[in-house]
Write a structure and sequence with these properties.
- The protein has a single domain, classed as TIM Barrel (Alpha-Beta Barrel).
- It is α/β, with parallel strands linked by helices and about 400 residues long.
- The protein contains 16 helices and 13 strands.
- The strands form four sheets. A four-stranded antiparallel β-sheet has the order 1-11-12-13.
Length: about 400
Amino acid sequence: MAIPTEARVVDGTGKFLLPGLIDMHVHLSKTRGSALGLFVANGVTTARDMGGDYDELRQWRREVAGGTRVGPRILMPGPILESPANIARMRKDPPSERVEPFDRMRIGVGSPQEARATVARLAGMEIDFIKIRTVHDRETYLALNEAANAHGIPLVGHVPPYSAAAILEAGQDGVDHGFSRAFDKETRDERIATWRRFAAAGVPIVPTLAIGGAILTPLERLRAIVEDDAGKVEPRRPYLSRFLMVDWREQFLEQSVEGQQQFRKFADQGLRDVREMHEAGIDLLAGTDTGVINLYPGSSLHDELAIFVRDIGMTPAEAIERATRRSARFLRIGDSVGTVERGKIADLILIDGDPLLDITNTRRISAVVVRGQYYDGAGLEKIRTDVLEAPDIRIDEWGRK
C-alpha cells in the first residue's frame, strides 16, 4: 500500500508488536459504557459480549464503529435464552429488590415451537450469534440448535447437564465456562476421549479461568475492594461504574467461606479438565466473564493469558494466539483482524517487553492502535481520565428503574 505523506511514523525500536487482543466473554451492560475505554487502554480491541441490554449494546457498537465513542469492536447476541423456570426464579424478588434489569437481557424459551419462533425473531436482529444459558428440556435444546443452524447463526454459551454425546449431536457451536456436570466418575482416558470428540467436531471452549482467582479472593479483601471507592486497596476499583458496584455488592453477599470451599473444588476440577482439553487438541479461547466480582474490564484478560501459561501448560505464543488469531477465526472476522498482516485492519498493541519470554509482558503496553487510530501513552492516559469523569461512574443509570 502507498504510505500517505502525512502518515505518522512510530518508532518501535526495542518494542514488540502484537495483534489487538480479543476477550471472548464479557458483559458490557454490567460494566457500562465507560468501561469500553478500559478495554482499549488494556489492549483489547475486540470484545464478544455474552448477553446484555440489546438496544444499548447496538447503540454503543454503532458509536464505536462510527468513531464517536472509544471502545473495542463489539460482537453481540440478542437477549440471553433461558428456561422459563429460571426466569420465574428471577421474578420472585420484587422489582424494588432486583439489581439486574433482567427483563431487558433475558427471555424464556419453553418448547421446541418457542425455540424456532425465538430464533427466527433473533435472526432479524443485528446480532452475530445466539447465547443460551439454561434450557427447558432436551427437545427444546435440540430445536434451538436446529433453528440456529437453519438460519446460519452460531449458537454458543452454557451447556445443559446432558451427556457429551447429546451436546455433540445437538451441534452447539461453542461452549463457555466448561461443562455443568462433573467428570469425576470417568477415568482420565475416558475424559481425554470425550475431549477429542469435541476437538474433532471443531467445538471451541472459552473456560473463563480467571473467575477462579477472582471469586476465591479472601472475603475480607473482597469486601475491602467493593467498598474501596478511592482505590487504596485496588487501583483499578475507581474506574468501575456505579451499577457494577451495586451488582458486585450483591455478588459479595452471596459469598461465604463454605461456598468458597465448594467452589475451590469445582475450580480445581476445571483446571484439570482444561489441561486435558489442551492435551486433546480442543481450541481453548481466552475470555474473562467480566462483570463477575473482582474481574476488571480489559486487564483481567491478561490474567487469563497468564493462567493459560502457568496452569494449563501453554507456551506464551500459544496463549497469545488464543486471544488473537484463533478467536478471530471463530468469530468469522479472521480475514480482517487477529494477526499482523498487510491488508488487515490496524488493531495492534505495542508493548515494552518480549511476551514470548514472559507472558505478563502483555501488560506493559506502550501504545494501542484501534482501527488505525493511534493512542500513545498520553492518549491512553486520557482514555482513563475520561472514564473517571463519565457519568455512569457516579450514577446507576441502568439498574433499578
